[in-house]
Design a protein that fits this description.
Blueprint (H helix, E strand, L loop, with lengths): L1 E2 L3 E4 L6 H9 L1 H4 L9 H18 L3 E6 L5 E8 L14 E6 L8 H16 L4 E5 L4 H9 L3 E8 L2 E8 L7
Antiparallel strand pairs: 1-2, 2-3, 3-4, 4-5, 6-8, 7-8
Helix pairs in contact: 1-3, 4-5
């Protein structure tokens, strides 16, 4: 678990599923993440994927729980999805985040992603990457605030995509 001022980052739970499925069915959430609402079945498989990432890779996504209301505010973390992508990013932890519509626009993503990259710096070796739709100005700002820099513009699933990377800070002797 990771705590911030406004949220708790914790493992996903079975009792998150209804709120999780509603979040992934909301076009405001998915507009720049595949551009389509997800079915309950798609959401279920996505939820299960998170447990597998932690088990097999030692990193994954956290559920974001709002401290004040207890509601599921989104999810964020690191994954390796073996994307069919050029250049290949396989084996490099990829940061990602999705914020439920009612929690968007209040700086929550920056707060959460900042804590995730700090966790990554402390627990994983090497760089991380993220991919962002070039029209998603909010996520581009989040990535930049958290130390990600554009590597190149490319195409993923037929649409324009920006590949960004972040290297952990070097420690001087």
């Amino acid at each position: 678990m990771i705590e911030t001022e406004r949220v708790i980052l914790r493992p996903h739970r079975l009792d998150d599923f209804d709120a999780y499925a509603r979040m992934w069915a909301d076009l405001q959430v998915t507009r720049f993440i595949g551009g389509r609402a997800r079915s309950r079945e798609d959401s279920w498989l996505r939820l299960l994927r998170h447990a597998g990432m932690w088990s097999m890779l030692g990193f994954g996504f956290w559920a974001i729980q709002d401290r004040q209301s207890g509601k599921l505010a989104g999810e964020a973390g690191l994954h390796d999805l073996k994307r069919d992508f050029e250049p290949s990013i396989e084996g490099i932890p990829e940061a990602g985040w999705a914020i439920a519509a009612e929690f968007q626009g209040i700086g929550l993503a920056s707060e959460v992603v900042g804590r995730i990259v700090a966790w990554s710096d402390a627990n994983l070796a090497g760089k991380t990457v993220c991919i962002v739709d070039p029209q998603n100005a909010a996520s581009l700002r989040v990535a930049e605030k958290c130390g990600y820099r554009e590597v190149l513009k490319t195409v993923y699933h037929g649409g324009p995509t920006i590949l960004m990377e972040r290297r952990p800070p070097t420690v001087s002797a």
